[in-house]
Description:
Blueprint: H1 5-8, H2 12-15, E1 20-29, E2 39-43, E3 48-50, H3 58-71, E4 75-80, E5 96-104, H4 109-112, E6 121-126, E7 133-136, H5 148-154, H6 158-174, E8 177-182, H7 195-199, E9 211-218, E10 223-227, H8 231-242, E11 246-251, H9 254-257, E12 267-270, H10 273-282, E13 291-294, H11 299-310, E14 316-319, H12 323-335, E15 346-347, H13 359-372
Parallel strand pairs: 10-11, 10-13, 11-12, 13-14, 14-15
Antiparallel strand pairs: 1-2, 1-5, 2-3, 4-5, 6-7, 6-9, 8-9
Helix pairs in contact: 8-13, 10-11
Amino acid sequence: MLDLMPSLGSWRPAVSGQRLAVATIVGSGGSVPRPLGTSMMVSENGEILGSLSGGCVEGAVVEAAMEAMRDGGPRLESYGYSAEDAFAVGLTCGGELEVHIQPFGAGAPELSLFAGPQRPAALIRRLDAGGGVMVVDDPVRFRAMESPELAVLLGDHPSTLFAAAAQVEPLLQGGRAGLVRLAPPEGCIDGWVTTERLAAPPREEEEPQPITLFVESRLPAARMLVFGANDFGAALLPVGQLLGYNVTLCDARPAFASQNRFSGADQVVTDWPHRYLESEAAGGRLDSRTVVCVLTHDPKFDIPLLQAALRLNLAYVGAMGSRRSHRQRVDALLQAGTPPESLDRLHSPIGLDLGAVTPAEVAVSITSEIIAARGTGVNTTGFPSLKDSAGPIHPAPIHAAPLHAAPQHLTQEDPWT
């Protein structure tokens, strides 16, 4: 749902005060086109904002949303592939989706809170029979055990609140969406169950259902810090922004950093790289999602910067250079006191081994490695990281050799690497 909020202020049905229903992907299986948390909004007049599957199930979701607005109740719908009926509503890719549909009245406060400038915020929705929704204004500092609103949403049971904290807080603080299932209080044996209750014969009643929460969290854009005002830095800036990063270019040389080709960066900073990184860390402006790309290719900048970066809890630290430069860099870092285990986090030479040559290709190689390293930190692309492979970084150029020319062995790496 939060993915639609930046567009809400300019969407005519919302501005004009129509009733709305929000359909959100809260569960998936197999191959599906969109991740958890993807939402589509439907107005009472049938206008649509967003998409869930690229067209496979949208028609059926609109019908369910219109019904939800008519009866005022939320619902959970399931959509999957039907081999028996080619015309059945479903996903042709073979996956399955669970879609939660929540109607909202005109001017609902939950919607107005998120309209306008994007700021950190989160929603916690209860999807089972209990229902309900709560807004979290500060996802990073939210503490479940200290939240009376979450206690009410869960039914004021201490053991359930304690269990929720372990699952809800990481989602909120990581800016992610996810489904949380909690054992119902009636199904738990804890300190609140008396000896008399345990000794009593079992009661014939329906088995209690788990409490199901869907958590969506929105944090400020993760930061990408690009060090080095050169051709490769210029190519990396727009690719990083395309991936949603807030991109900063930093270079200690004013004549380089002030070039017009870097004006598209979110911030351009003229400072010594390590000094800027340390000041940003001290100011609390970096977090575990931050990406650092060292493209300066100059030891007087690289070594102090990498020392500082490897002391921080960052998502990715990469440095451009040839394999010879990498060996020299490692030796210098060890001599400067960097712990050997910290070097395992250094992606050097930077990027996946895609055979990239041009600055644009190198930018794709770098961002591909950043994406591959997300989450588990394990590269499953089939393309090794340059730091884990051997041999020349770039394929040898193919030139038409003149007749009678002596054979040459083109194995030298380009001087910029």
